Amino acid sequence: MPFANKFRAMMDLPLAGDTVCGYVVESVEVGHEPAGPGLYSYAVRIVLRGPGGQQGVRRALKALFSSHPMTFSGYGNPYQLWFGRPGIESLGEQRYAVSAEGAGARIFLEQELERFLGYLTESGQWTAGCDQAAGETLVREYLERYRAEIGRKVARYRSGMRRSVEPAAEREQEPL
Asked: Any idea what the Cα angle at residue 167 is, between residues 164 and 168, rounded to 5°?
């Protein structure tokens, strides 16, 4: 299962202190729990501050909540991720709480890629190494590179998370 921090990274959620279309991100919280076989639920809450009202917040986050990236679990299983429709609550003083339910569902990517290669071979559109073993090797190599790419993206995001948390912790420890 992709844990909450991987969901945050793959959905490219902003970090506390970031600015999104003129709104300053005050906090981001993500939780996760199983929702069924191969299905996980992610409760997301983002608090923003800035002018523009609830419709402005909705416009600012539209692209973020429209993405459907894919990731891999710690075991290497592929998952498709997405958000449900966000709810926006005014907290007063130009502050807004955005709540949404995200989801991750297990997909069978390797089988679909092999099926697609079979189609390309049958239709004469792919002739390099026309045997089934070559196609399976190609799919495995592609998935290994894709997993590594996602691993790098998640590592960069986690590094950013640490940097955004560390200065806040240091400010809290400063003497008055």
From this structure: 85
How many C-alpha atoms does 113 have within 13 Å on its Cβ side?
A: 16
Cα separations (Å) of 78 from 75, 81, 101, 175? Answer: 9, 10, 20, 47
pLDDT digits (tens, 9 = 90+) for 38-95: 999 999 999 999 998 999 999 999 999 999 999 998 888 999 999 999 999 999 999 9
**102 bridge partner residues:** 42, 83
Residue 131: Cβ-neighbour burial (10 angstroms; 0-12, 13-18, 19+): exposed
Residue ranges of the domains in the chain?
Answer: 4-173
pLDDT band at residue 176, thresholds of 50, 70 and 90?
very low
d(CA 17, CA 24): 6
The model carries a pTM of: 0.81
Give the mean model confidence (pLDDT) for residues 96-114: 93
CA distance 49 to 12: 19
Q: How far is CA 120 from CA 46, 115, 144, in A?
A: 44, 9, 21
3-state SS, residue 79? strand
Task: Dump pLDDT digits (tens) for 161-173.
Answer: 888 765 554 444 4
